[in-house]
Specification:
Layout lengths: L1 H4 L9 H15 L19 H13 L6 H12 L4 E2 L2 E2 L8 H32 L8 H22 L5 H9 L8 H10 L3 E4 L11 E4 L2 H16 L7 H14 L1
Antiparallel strand pairs: 1-2, 3-4
Length: 253
């Protein structure tokens, strides 16, 4: 948590930090102090209920294992009924006492432990359900790549598109094409549409078209692939000639 990492623990803090901490706790809890007949402001009277409460908080802070911001976060959690100690919800009392202050700290510490165990459990389940894929051998990668290239032969003939965009783009670069005419780039950018709407507006106005955002680099790659295939008339060849062309480029990679 940011509150834990950004500061030192209160028990290691100097008087200035403890003074600020005590003030922040009082402002948060807003304890009710008895009315005073003294003309001296309670903040300036060392024996006022205000300063007695403040000193209790500072004294507690010297033994607290939380940071200043962590403790304020603990107060926030306690006010929402999130913290639990011995199966009992931790409450905030408007009378400052160190037992209640310590109970809030303990509740927050237990919460962190439970939350970490919960996160660890979720991570273990996620790893179990989604085990890392074994790394492909060069031969396995070649077989998979050629399989995708074969599928894209039929896909391109059907609708003029390929799915394995990055594969084809990298193979085209193996031909030695490293420069593109400025005219080609300008034409692409002028015709590029960053968003398209898919579907229609419902007659009752309750359903809207789905807006699909396009990645400019991916679209540029697709345009290069399309231009390359049509220029060499690869889409007019038989499947085996299509495979042979890309396999030759794959060997060079």
């Amino acid at each position: 948590m940011k509150a834990e990492l950004s500061q030192s623990k209160l028990k290691w803090s100097n008087d200035e930090v403890l003074e600020r901490f005590a003030t922040r706790v009082i402002l948060y809890i807003d304890p009710k102090f008895p009315d005073s007949d003294s003309d001296i402001p309670p903040e300036e009277d060392p024996f006022s209920d205000y300063n007695i409460a403040k000193n209790k908080i500072k004294d507690y802070g010297k033994r607290c294992d939380l940071t200043e911001d962590e403790y304020l976060l603990a107060l926030n959690f306690a006010s929402k009924g999130i913290l639990v100690v011995d199966d009992q919800i931790v409450k905030i009392y408007r009378e400052i006492n160190q037992i209640n202050l310590a109970e809030i700290e303990r509740g927050y510490t237990d919460f962190k432990i439970r939350d970490q165990k919960h996160q660890n459990s979720k991570n273990e389940i996620r790893k179990f359900l989604n085990p890392p894929q074994p790394k492909l051998t060069p031969e396995e990668y070649r077989t998979l790549t050629l399989s995708n290239i074969r599928k894209d032969y039929h896909r391109f003939k059907a609708d003029g598109k390929v799915l394995a965009t990055s594969v084809f783009y990298d193979l085209i670069k193996n031909t030695g094409i490293v420069k593109v005419k400025l005219e080609f780039v300008e034409k692409f950018l002028k015709n590029f549409v960053p968003e398209v709407a898919e579907g229609k507006l419902g007659s009752d106005g309750t359903s809207l078209p789905k807006v699909i955002k396009k990645d400019v680099f991916v679209e540029f790659q697709n345009e290069m692939i399309n231009h390359y295939i049509i220029h060499l008339e690869l889409h007019q060849t038989i499947e085996e000639e299509w495979i042979k062309h890309w396999e030759t480029l794959l060997i060079k990679s």
